[in-house]
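Data availability (excerpt). The following record was deposited with the supplementary files.
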Amino acid sequence: MAFARFLQWRADLLGADYLNALRRIRYVFPPIPRDRVAALLHRELGDASRDLVRQMEDEPIWSTLSRTAYLSWYEGSPVVVQVAREPVSEEALQEFEAGIGFLGHPDVSGVTAPRILRQFRRWLRQAESSALERSYLEVLGGSRGETLVDYPALIPSISTDHVLCWPWVDGEPVSSLIRRGSVDAVTQVAMAVLEQYCSLSIVDADLQADAIVMPTGAQRLAIRRIEKPLSVPPPVVNVGMKYVAAVLEGNASIIVQTLLTMAVGQSSASLEADLLNLMSGVEPELKVHAWYPGSASAFESNWRALEKLGVSRARPLYLDCLHRNLVAVGYWTSDAVAAGGKAADTIAEAHGPVLGRVLRINAEEFLDPAVVKEWSKGIGLFTFGAMREANRLAEEFRETNLTLEVEPEPDDLRQSDRKAGPTLRIGLIAGGLLATVLVSLRWGSKLHQPATAFVSAVALGALAGLIWVVRKIG
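Predicted structure:
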């Protein structure tokens, strides 16, 4: 059951038929008995556990592969009381690996490769420690109200390294919203997936639609639990952001460079050529009688091509989990559209708000020209596209290559009329540039960074243009 959960959405290893079969499995994991949870609460919290245990419900609110949670009450409000299961023994894992090696069907032979089984081990062990989960939730709690979706906020007074408690969020699960055709809910899930990677440097290694809800009366999603939070090394966060942007833009050269950098730690001309050939030869996985977003299809094809590349070095788990979650978003979008929702590329729509938040948070970093150059090289992000366009205009102003177009006039017009038209047009342009300079200088100092830097850049560009226009008039 655990291995089937690990393989869910793994489009790099399995075809669409197998993925659809895996998603239909009803994953049922026996809960940790209530009396054992109560005993753990008494041990961890002492007297503070009395009311929690007394008001704790008899049936769990969830029982997953690695966690069991019960609903209780604390200071008059409902709270989640979550504890971890005992880790899977090494003997049990070895027995499983020995048995699964006998799978001989060619369609699934890839899932029994040693590197995949090693990755499964890491995926399984990732959620064993409640203390590790606590550290993730504490970090997320520091960003509360700033993120695009809400995360559990630990209650420190009743949380330990073995018991985690946070307020219960009442609402409709995303799985239910999808069945009602809510493409907007899936877009918000895509925002959560991209924001986790790009801004929070984490990936949920077991993203589940029933763990995310739309709170009653709210307009944004709340995550009830993060099943398996996995950290992303900070140096590759920017690389991953460029990869996502390149996929949405369709920039193949940047896709292969960034994907290889994340997958094997470096990129080379030979590897790039091999991966590019594989990407061009991979046919999109056919989704019969289903609409599937183009961006999700692109991520899926890239993932399959990377698997076919067959590099000896094991891929980082975070990279496969990122693709896993984006493929899941694609399938959920397809389900919502099939249920009557309006077709939309949810990943592409989610990218703008996520990028906007990243820019707001890291505004000072993007004032560094070296950072901007690194980000903008080869990537068609709308923000940096605007920067490149401004730079192009500035270059043309310096080289006096920017010309004004003048419509041809009839031959019978007087020579003075022919001169008046262009002169008036140039004068209007000069007036507009002068007004831009004055307004920028007047209001730029009253703004905060990074708006001040942006307005200053606009003023300088307008001033350069004004000088060039004046020279042309002269």
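Summary of structural features: Strands lie at 62-63, 67-74, 77-84, 163-167, 171-173, 202-204, 212-215, 222-223, 229-231.
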